[in-house]
């Protein structure tokens, strides 16, 4: 009986604590600026939770179209990063606010070429990053990058 009382007390505390956390949870906002991606796509360009902005993956499309820039990996990488900058700025953030990137490459053998472009968009300290080879990126892209950005509350 004693252990049941402890479990019941712990459960009641957790339920109460859960309610307190829910009351303090950050608002969630969904954004589609239309500055890079068409607003008709079935996902948000970015989602903000509190002071953290989660960007959907970006590829090297010409803004406002669904057409990749010509020129190969370096040009796609450059346009991808410009699209990320545009999305960040449309939502009140900058590349300096990026804390994590996930890079998907159609050919992991192009990792060095991607890095050559990527490093021109950031200054130390660099964001955390993961990179992986992927088979079949959207629109036949060679690279896709998604980012998380965060700002300190003022």
What does this structure look like?
Helix 2 (73-90) packs across helix 3 (111-118). A hairpin with a 2-residue loop joins strand 2 and strand 3 (52-55). Residues 3-22 have low confidence and may be disordered. The chain is an alpha+beta fold and 154 residues long. The protein has a six-stranded mixed sheet with strand order 1-2-3-6-4-5, covered by helices on one side. It is built from three helices and six strands; from the N terminus they run αβββαβαββ. The radius of gyration is 20 Å and the shape is globular. It has a single domain, classed as 60s Ribosomal Protein L30, Chain: A (2-Layer Sandwich), CATH 3.30.1330.
What's the gist of this structure?
The protein has helices at 2-24, 73-90, 111-118; strands at 28-31, 46-49, 52-55, 98-105, 128-133, 143-150.
Helical coverage, percent range: 25-40%
Strand content: 15-25%
> Can you tell me the number of structural domains?
1
Taking the sheet with the most strands, its summary is: 6 strands, mixed
Q: Structural class, judged by helices and strands?
A: alpha+beta
CATH class: Alpha Beta
The tally of beta strands, per DSSP, is: 6
CATH architecture call: 2-Layer Sandwich
Q: Which ranges are low-confidence, i.e. pLDDT below 50, for 5 or more consecutive residues?
A: 3-22
What is the helix/strand order? HEEEHEHEE
Distance between the termini: 51 Å
Mean pLDDT: 87
Silhouette: globular
Count every helix, treating DSSP H or I runs of 4 or more residues as helices: 3
In what order do the strands lie side by side in the largest sheet?
1-2-3-6-4-5
């Amino acid at each position: 009986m004693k252990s049941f009382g402890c479990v019941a007390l712990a459960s009641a505390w957790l339920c109460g604590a859960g309610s307190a956390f829910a009351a303090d949870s950050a608002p969630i906002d969904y954004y589609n600026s239309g500055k890079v991606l068409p607003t008709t796509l079935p996902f948000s360009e970015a989602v903000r939770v509190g002071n953290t902005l989660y960007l959907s993956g970006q590829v090297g499309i010409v803004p406002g179209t669904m057409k990749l820039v010509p020129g190969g990996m370096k040009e796609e990488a450059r346009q991808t990063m410009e699209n990320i900058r545009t999305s960040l700025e449309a939502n009140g953030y900058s590349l300096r606010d990026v804390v994590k990137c996930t890079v998907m490459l159609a050919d992991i053998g192009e990792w060095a070429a991607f890095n050559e472009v990527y490093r021109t968009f950031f200054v130390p300290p660099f964001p955390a990053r993961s990179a992986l080879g992927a088979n079949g990126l959207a629109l036949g892209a060679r690279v896709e990058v998604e980012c998380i950005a965060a700002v300190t509350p003022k």
